[in-house]
Records
---
Amino acid sequence: MTNAVEISNVIFQWPTGKTPVLDIPEFSVGTGERLFVSGSSGSGKTTLLNLLGGVAVPDSGAVSVLGTRLDKLSSAQRDSFRADHVGVIFQLFNLVPYLSLVENVLLPCRFSARREAQATATDGDPVSAARRLLSRMGLSSDLFAGRSVTDLSVGQQQRVAAARALIGAPELLVADEPTSALDEDARQSFLDLLFESVAAEGQTLILVSHDRRLEAMFDRHVVLADLNHAAIRQVPE
Amino acid sequence: MKTVVALAFRSLISRSATVMLSVAAIAVSVTLLLGVERIRTETRNSFANTISGTDLVVGARSGSIPLLLYSVFRIGNATNNISWQSYRELASDPAVAWTIPLSLGDSHRGFRVLGTNTDYFQYFRYARTRSLSFTEGKRFDDVFDAVLGAEVADALGYSVGDQVVIDHGVGRIGFASHKDKPFRVSGILARTGTPVDRTVHVSLGGIEAIHIDWRSGAPAPGLRIDAERVRGMDLQPRAITAFMVGLKSRFATFTVQRKINEYRPEPLLAILPGVALQELWSLMGTAERALSAISVFVVVTGLIGMVTMLLSGLNERRREMAILRAVGARPAHIFSLFLLEAAFIAALGAVLGLGLLYLLLGVAQPVIESTYGLFIAIGAPTSTDLIYLGAVIVAGVLAGIVPAFRAVRLSLADGIIVRS
């Protein structure tokens, strides 16, 4: 198994829609690869990410992540597969507002015994793992205690989200426009830290963004519109 | 599951202002529900405690409820009297242990005057086994002695030795008064929470004495017999209004009742006070049930408030649900999160409601006792209380299904990526 993700002949359509939003004949991502997917709104990136996360299943075709056919799993199995193997970073509002920094980072360990076990194996216990990852993402430890996550800057929030996606070393990292709310400096340092961590753990990273400036930092770049034959509707940004 | 419980708890704390409003609405409604239930039970008990140990109440033939009302509750008037002769004859029945004669028809400043004899203080029982006791003074001894119920003494500020003028009739202001023959307060009874508190007790002789120079409900013209001369006269009453009967054996109750009901010389009615009390209570049951129904609806309103709060917060929480889904939460987790929030709110509301009830009872108990003569015991929650609390919590959880279900539907539609 060399590919982290393999998609073939996938067609996805909303129950109410007339035309498919996703029609991808062939798409694969190698293990340990850092892939940049560019696509504007309406190109089907939301659906692609939901498919990779196992939240949605295609109407036809195969979605294989880490060698597991997600389209063959029950929804409960897909939920625990996602908990065990996939880390997700959103564009904005990544954090549960009523939990502390550390508690936010620990969330995947609460829903996945596997990630809890891995975090314990590397750092002794999940809390130490969370603190290490937060430090690695450049957050000073005086932020950890007691502060509400809503007091953090957007840049700091994205770093907490990255630490959460990394805890317990899931094999696949999926990021949806993680830097679009950040300014130039924050963006660069966020990506540097993210790449550093991904390299250390040997994870596969798929980052979706419309910001083509990021392209140069990745191993490979695909344009979602080229990939997705259904992406014909052009919604202006 | 432990995770979801912790999440629900933290989520509620973060929204404590709105959550506490919902909790308060449920708490107040629970207090009302339990309070109404408590007052209902206590009223019923106090009602059933009005008269105890009396096997039969006998009066002129009418209905059992009117007889109970005028003889025990001092409400309304007798339609007819019982002749002294019939009373003596029935009282001497071998099955009869004791009797208390009751003579009604006069009042003092709105309080009924009861003519009786000292057997009243010996045999009358209320609240199962309690007998009358004096806070001040003693039983009536002289013809013009009066014993006051606790409320009469409180309301009119009397103490032993004060003079009491009895009004003829039972209106708030008597048509005429027996002011030529004033009574002297000889004793004041301890509070009972029964109509005894609102009664002025005098001897049968006293009732006879004040009417001795009256004919057909008015002072007889030209006939004036002063108080001192009356003492020397024969004060045996010609008739009484009713009497209470205690039997030597309870097994004789129905035999004696039948004997009285079939008594030839005059038409009489003997009732079992317990049975008549039941009948009377069932008449009042409608109002009681209406109160209960209202308090149940108030609880429903409180729960609707909670559901509204949870539903209105749902849209702002779509991100939160997407995050939870992304880190591996299943739809069942999302469902439990919302259900647990509802359960926490309902349970907290129920517990605070119980606390509020005890607080209110503590404050109101003395007031209720002194104003209505109703003693509300403050004890541990009854099994009924616990059933009601449980029902409120279960109803809260059931109500929580609505927002929980909607949350799952939203979350399934959104997936892990919420479009901004």
---
Amino acid sequence: MKRLGASLTLLAGLLLITLAQPTSASTTEASQAAPATSAFGNVPGAATLPQHPLGNFSVNRYDGLVVAPGELRVDHVQDLAEIPTAQAGPLLNADRQGWAAERCAEAARSMAGTAAQRPLTFTVRSSVVRTVPGQAGLPTARLECALVASAAEGPITFRDTGGAATVGWREITARGDRMTLTSSDVPTTSRSARLTAYPSDLLSSPLSQWTANLRVRAGGPALGPAETPVTEILPRGADKPARAFADLVANERLTLGFAVTALLIAIALGALHALAPGHGKTIMAAYAVSQGRRARRNILTLGITVTLTHTAGVLALGLIVLSGTVLAPGLVFGGLGAASGLLVAVAGTLMLRRAIRTFKTGTQTHTHAFGHAHAHPHGHGHGHTHSHQPRQRSTPESVQDSARPHLSHTSTSTLIRPAALNGAPSTGLDRRDPDGPEHTGPTEETHDASERSRGAALMGFAGGMVPSPSAVLVLIGAAAIGRAWFGVVLVLAYGVGLALTLILVGLFVMGTGRALASRLSDSSARPRLLRRVSARALPVATSLAVVLLGLGLMLRSLPTAFG
Amino acid sequence: MLVVRRFAAGAVIFVLAVGLTVLASVRFSSQFEPAAESAPVSGAGMDRVTGRSIARLQEHLRAQPKDAAGWAGLGLAYVEQARVTADPSYYPKASAAFDRSLRVSPTDNEPALSGQGALAAARHDFTAALRLADRALKINPYGTRAHAVRVDALVELGRYEEADQAVRHADKIKPALPIFTRYAYVMELRGRPGEAQRVLRLAATSATDPADVSYVHTQLGELAWNRGDLTTAEREYAAALRADPNWLPAIDGRARVRAAKGDAAAAIRDRQALVARAPLPSYVVALGELYEARGMQAQAREQYGVAAAWATLARSNGVPTDFEGAITAADHGDRAAALHAARTEWGRRKSIHVADALAWALHVNGRDKEALGYARQAARTGYRNATFLYHLGVIEKSLGHKAAARRDLKAALALNPHFSDLHAPQARKALKELQ
């Protein structure tokens, strides 16, 4: 009865975890979708390519004012629709950087203002332009200028008279950096997410903000790292520490000490990333491979796969960003999320197939006195089981007895590994049992082993697939200051951190599982039928749960991909 | 005891898995609070008057979303905004506003129907415009807007007889400024520029709104320009720009007059301002031709490149955003595409402008025999236009009809010696070759 109670408890635990996982995954997607909504517009459908609210020939302008001690910084952005880009075409194509510099200088000249009644003179700190595919495959251009004017402390007036004749959205925002705005007639955040998403509902007209009037006083929190151009394509998954880190990499001088520190931080961030929402599935994968004798090897496979996949993904995304192509972030992250879900579902299906096969086999071989296969559905792989094995072989009855510890073991491992590749571990026992009278052939052994590590690789692939936004940020931050190689090293470190967490979790679970299993094997004399049925049904249930989980993850990501 | 410990171990793992995920979710989502919505402000690059009325209507409709007439009014304001700024992106908004109006009040909603008619006409769907105007007139036979849309649709469809009747009927039952300007246009197209001028002068005296004043004076300028009267044209365009300095067609007219008077620098300045403000295909091509006529080949090619971008956009949208402009590109862009566009348009409507465009597109593709018929079609109403005559003359010359070619080229140059910066000199050259 005690055993039945334990089984039920474990079953309930399994169900809870299986249910909790999709929920946590949904939270994940929601938290990824939420930034996408705030960053890419208040409008459904705006998450695709930038739409120009004022048509194919608009030039939209944004001025993000930052009042800092002694200076006024302007984050100036121009979003040129297809026709203005075509108008700029020959010059833009001939000398991109020159065009950007000239255009930013022109923007600086067209700005006027005063600080404490003294006129402001703006100078260009940096200028960059990139082209983004627009309608009909025609390019559109996005110009970003960092402008600065030295400003005495006092009331600030600002006016951007540039492009007065052109049609377009005009927006100004203002924030303080170690200064506090006591009054401001412009908002602090951009309604268009810095000209990346324009509201298009019926009752809103294009913004037409030409001036700003601010009152400031000294003191106040420091502003977070300035929004870099690339942050636009990333979901706001890049949280504050990651941004701070990216900023650090971009600003600090590269000394040995700093490099080591940065590497450690990258590993730590990667490790945290693995714990972040969205990696519940990876943790599960870690549970999954913590089974079987080859557990350590599988965990290693998983770790390497995660690291490699994640690094490759981040590098690919980084290249895309640096090449100036802008993909809809929903498409990138949603698409990868969906693919990851698909992989989990595929892995689940493989498991399910095996589980069902084993379930059937178990039922058939039960009548045999030598029910060797019978033992298979039970999770093995823990050292202690071997001690039972030779003894059990002697009589059919003892084989039946041997099912006991196995059963309880299965249940335990199922609790801690809902995503387990259930079928695999049992055959692992066969392979390593030299005295077994019904030894499976070497071909099958190899097949099983490879299938198992394939499962681990598949899970690792799914786990590493969605790139960590902060890693992309760090990579691009490093590339922007001509240290792309260092960025790559840091991304690799991210992957290592990611793998480290998963491996640690896997090992922890393996240890816990062993401890539990050895405890459970001590108990004896439980109703047999229930044990047998539940022992075979549980793998089916768990693999089914994995399939459903994978499908759920996929379906959840699809709207983000195409929304 | 055992159960308790077992349970505890399971619980630890469970709590670890769930707790970490939940914690991480909370931690992450707390950073993703959407930005507070700031109050919308109206008006970028907008006409100030319509911009204000749009803002007012938007505010009103936020409070009174059940106001069908309000929604129709907002739709019309968007259509008007698109006309003034030459920006087609207001059309989808206008369309949605009319739909909303019709949802609130599905029957006898004349303002929404006539508004949809105006929108269809603006989008060059004249068949739909005519149908909608007729439906609106069934509800309210005195609707000025519906009458105006109906006349516009008939004119653009090439049904000039009916347009003539429609505009006279409208003038009889509900005389109004929009009807006067259309009356004048129909008169001009039917070869009676004197009558057109008389009506427009009357209209000019009754117009008070700056937008109306500039519109009427620009039309008077066009009339004068079409018969080569530079002085009058200049005066009228100036009057139009006094009323509304941003009225693009008047700037376009002024640039033509300046170029004709030999002030190339001023003309180029005007045209540059025009394409900076609204790089529509016809303005872009006009600047290109101005450059080309002055021997500035590289600058001209840049402008033709922009025109090509327009053509690409138009092809991808399936609707020519500016049909005449796309056809002008026949001289500088993709000839085969221009011919295809002209043929498609001729399948839709048989106006003299489309006939002329098709004739010219056929000519540049070397099919002068076919072109001649369409070029003659373009003259069928008695409308006298130097460009039309030039096209006809060139086609006749290619076919070896020397006498006819001489006559028509001479007529083109006599009507307006400056009809085109690029083509007027070529007309002279062709004429010289014929003598």
